[in-house]
Amino acid sequence: MAEQSAALSPLLKQATPVLAARGEGVYIFDEDDRRYLDFTAGIGVTSTGHCHPRVVDAAQRQVATLVHGQYTTVMHRPLLQLTERLGSVLPQGVDRLFYVNSGSEAVEAALRLARQATGRQNAIVFQGGFHGRTMAAASLTTSGTKIRAGIGPLMPGVVVSPFPYAYRLGMSEEEATEFALRELDYQLATVSYPQDTAAIFIEPVLGEGGYVPAPAAFLRGLRERADKHDILLVVDEVQTGFGRTGDFWGHESAGIRPDIVITAKGLASGFPLSAIAASQSLMEKAWPGSQGGTYGGNAVSCAAALATLDVIEDEGLVANAAQMGERLQQGLAGVAADHPGIGDVRGRGLMVGNEFTAPDGSPDAETATRAHKAAAEKGLLLLTCGPHGNVVRMIPPLIVTADQIDEAVNLWSQTMKEVAA
Ligand SMILES: Cc1ncc(COP(=O)(O)O)c(C=O)c1O
């Protein structure tokens, strides 16, 4: 059981009662050496599992060599190597990189770039999207009012359009896509004049907003509109990138080329590192001095990111995420078939959500919370998400095996029986 330090902010809410002593692969061990199956992966960060030996080795060697080589003062090899290496996984031509430390910072950087490059102010976002907690990122965020409440005035120039959330809308995926694209056109006709619109920000799978994949036709529709009006398409791949969805990038299967890619989380297996990528010509349109920062591109984080890329490649983790994600969704759909309170099981790759719905169709956060808590007691660590907190999400590391997926589904099944009793 976790101790709560009296000196910590009382506002911090801990999702599980675990005091983690060490991590190994898919498992976290507490101080009594109790083993937990970690299907949270540090909110989708520990892509190669906890303390992957190759990531640990790369980081340890780098710590002993150079920890901080501030990259606008001096240059260092890990950053140069990582930049070159990322070029091979980024969309063709979208390969000029600017490094910062967190997802929110990278979102801010993407917005600055988009505004300066286009000379336009507005950003269009989709309802339920999460882009971070810093002031501009929070202004782009609508995954729950708690991120925005009481801190206003927020940044002006943000227009919120509906996301094709088929289950919530009670529509098929095609209907929801058509609806959301029609509404986007309506926003461009009524609220955000295209020539005032710098960028469209989209998460390929809504994260905090409830683990809802954006249909490929929707992403293609965004690309068409962006092309038509010279608006930049920014894909926020903070959570969906680096193999998480069973493709290297979450937007990949839609066959679109974004203008700006935002990456963080899985990029360095737990070391703080984030980046934006754009073409040379787009980056050149930003103003001198508009990019920088003390800690961005930390040498140890870059070394860890390089090792992460090696592991993803050598262990075939993108394909593993696709296969294991399929197995997880199938298993969870089986559990949901016995529990009508789980109204929808959905996701892409190893980003899978179970949405809890009351018999009258309203969101059932209470049962989701009980299930989440009961699962932790059984040794399965999960998270909740969604604007109402009624989605239990599962995000295991990409190294997860079939046996571990089956173990989790089995624990989830036991959990649901207990919760339903
Ligand atoms: C899609 C997305 N964008 C941005 C962020 C913000 O990242 P950070 O918490 O590192 O600031 C998150 C974090 O969950 C995210 O999932």
TrEMBL record:
GO molecular function: (S)-3-amino-2-methylpropionate transaminase activity; 4-aminobutyrate:2-oxoglutarate transaminase activity; identical protein binding; pyridoxal phosphate binding
Lineage per the UniProt record: Bacteria, Bacillati, Actinomycetota, Actinomycetes, Streptosporangiales
PANTHER family hit by this protein: AMINOTRANSFERASE CLASS III (PTHR11986)
Its EC number(s): 2.6.1.19, 2.6.1.22
Substrates-to-products reaction catalysed: 4-aminobutanoate + 2-oxoglutarate = succinate semialdehyde + L-glutamate; (S)-3-amino-2-methylpropanoate + 2-oxoglutarate = 2-methyl-3-oxopropanoate + L-glutamate
Pfam families: Aminotran_3 (PF00202)
UniProt keyword list: Aminotransferase, Pyridoxal phosphate, Transferase
Family: Belongs to the class-III pyridoxal-phosphate-dependent aminotransferase family.
The protein's name in its UniProt record: (S)-3-amino-2-methylpropionate transaminase
Transmembrane portions of the chain: none
Pathway annotation: Amino-acid degradation; 4-aminobutanoate degradation
Signal peptide span: none
Cofactor(s), names only, from the UniProt record: pyridoxal 5'-phosphate
